[in-house]
Design brief:
With 428 residues, the chain is an all-alpha fold. It has twelve helices and two strands, in the order ααααααααααααββ. Helix 3 runs antiparallel to helix 10.
Length: 428
Amino acid sequence: MTKDDQAHAPEREGARYARELRGHLTWLDSFTGVALGVLAAASGIYTYLGVRSLLDETGAWTTFAALSYSLAVSVGIFVFWSFMMRLLPAMRSAASRIGLLLSMALGSVAIVAMSSWLNAAALAGAAAVEQHLAHTVQAYQTALERAHSKTIAGQALERDVARARETFQDLSAQEDEGNLSGLAGRGAVFRVLTQKSAELEGLEQQIAEQEEAVEAAFQQGNAVLSRMRALSVEPGAVEGRSVRFAEEAVRLSGLIAELRQLNVAPLVARAASDLRDSVVLPDLDAGSAEGRANQQSTIESVLVLLADRATTLEAAAAEVQALPDAQEIEYTPLSAADAVIRYAGNFVPSWAGAIAIDLLPAVLVFVLMVTHAAIRQGQGVRTIEDTMTVAEMRAALDAARAFDMHPHTPDPTPPEEDGKTRHVRAVD
């Protein structure tokens, strides 16, 4: 091998490498368009399903509208990626490549906005709506349990009221025996004590009567929750289940509101205030001035005790009222597309598949960019003689022989310029 052959060996190797890559590209181009069309058509089908989930009405026009949108999406995806696959790999300057890359990024965002989220709605829309139903059931269960626990805490105030009532009943019994004011019988002090013990007994009975209503409301709420859970996982179309779910949600909201109203803590707080402030003092009925003085002193002690017991009840009622209230919950039906967006984190595989079916051609664009760059590197900087094929060489020889057979053929209609005729030789 001569030195000249050794010098040109890398060039020949690069040329063979470039021809090999061009052969592969020619074979791949034979079905790339079909593959791109299949991807665009598949995306259009899922886009159609996603659009139909957003449209409430049914009929020919609705179907036509959904088909038109999905067809526009399919054509747009096919044309966009066809442009990118043809033009971007052919760019040689950095500025042109960056410009087309930015265009491709903008187009990809547009494709995701007009197609991918609808594809995700078609792929996981029903599951996302069921996820929304399950989250709503959990929220309602939390609200029901919190309302019930606060109401039960209010019912527990019955024991505090009972202790205060027992205190005044014991004192009235002692007064009846003459152990408080020193005057046996049922005089003024006895009447004050029995007055307040009767008030507390009435409040105690009122609290006890509500216990049955509280338990009934809680049991009904649990029954509604059970039906809502069954609807969230029941097989069948999710649209019909959502309607029945909404009806049950309204019923459960009413039961939660009823449990809030059954809370007796505000009632106990008002009763404690009345226990201290509204006292009807009877006339002192002792026969002597000393006896009346003892009755007055005892009544004043009873009023101090009343104030202490009222403060204790008010504090207990305030503790119950300070407990966190049940959260106000309002069930809002969601479409499949809205549910997929709200619970996107739970459906990452569906989102990935929906976006991949639209943006997969971007990978092919980058593959073509790398391949074309390798072809240009293998060819190097060459003149037209280096890249001329046998067919091109034959065509050039035929043109040269034809030119030699008809040299210097004059133009039969020479142009006129400035009133003078000039003969211009035709140049082949």
